[in-house]
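Hi U.,

Before I forget, here's the chain from the pilot set. I'm dumping it here mostly so it's searchable later in email.
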Amino acid sequence: MLKLPIQTKKPFLLAHHNHIFLLEFALIAMQSLKYWLTEHPSVATFRWSPTQTWGSTWPFIFTAISVYIASACTVRVILIICRRRRPVPLGPIPATHSLAMVLISVLIFMGMLLSSDAEVRGTRWLWRRNRNTPFEWFLCFPLGIRPSGPVFFWSYVFYLSRFLHLLRTFFSILRDRKLPVFRLFNHSILLLMSFLWLEFSQSFQVLAILFATSVYSVIYAYRFWTEIRLPSKCVSFTLNCQMVLLCCNLVCHIGVLVLHFARGGCNGIGAWIFNSVLNATILLLFLKFHCQRKLGSSPNGRDPENVNVARKDR
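Structure:
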């Protein structure tokens, strides 16, 4: 039998032990991540309730949207009164905001993905009995589902992240000295829709959050890249990403409609109809602007979200 020399055995054994150590470390890290994102008591016992959950009442959401719009208009009026013609220097604030949104989006994506996987595994027997597939659950919640558990916890975190997302409006006003009407409408609608997902346990919200967080993590990473003054050649990158997101949502909305009639109903279908109308409205506005850009009739050649942050504080 051929024996390896002593000097070749030791590196081989050392590499083998290092490989085993890395696998064990990855397994422990994955188990720890799964615990904190899906099995922690605060996550596993979450329940959307007007008396127990912050921001879960109708007066709150309408007041929040009204304050948001009024604050944006107030900042714009103050700039007009002060007759400031140059952008307000914001320093590292926009870059910090973009980096924070990247991290939050990735966290929500991971939490929702692991929670959905645990939910599907835990109810596998139900899919087999009803002859359904787990993918149908992503599109169509069964009737009577309650907004509780890890999946709705991460839906709630996504709802809270929409408030941080609103700061982009004020950055735009302070930089461009204009009131971004489309941004006000778009952000208000996104905030209201994320509230409706929880209030009515709306179907399709799992895929919507996975799509949104994955796309927004890329968008905000790009914005962070441009904020720290690194070179960027794609002016309409964020606009194209948002168009992809809206088109994916539109396709999934069709799937929800088909399952609603084929499977005897999906939970929260009334809120879903309202959500679909708002999504279609936003998509039409994006398409209108995209056509204007192609025809060269868009003012200043800029998108409705003012996403080209290449223009910096002077």
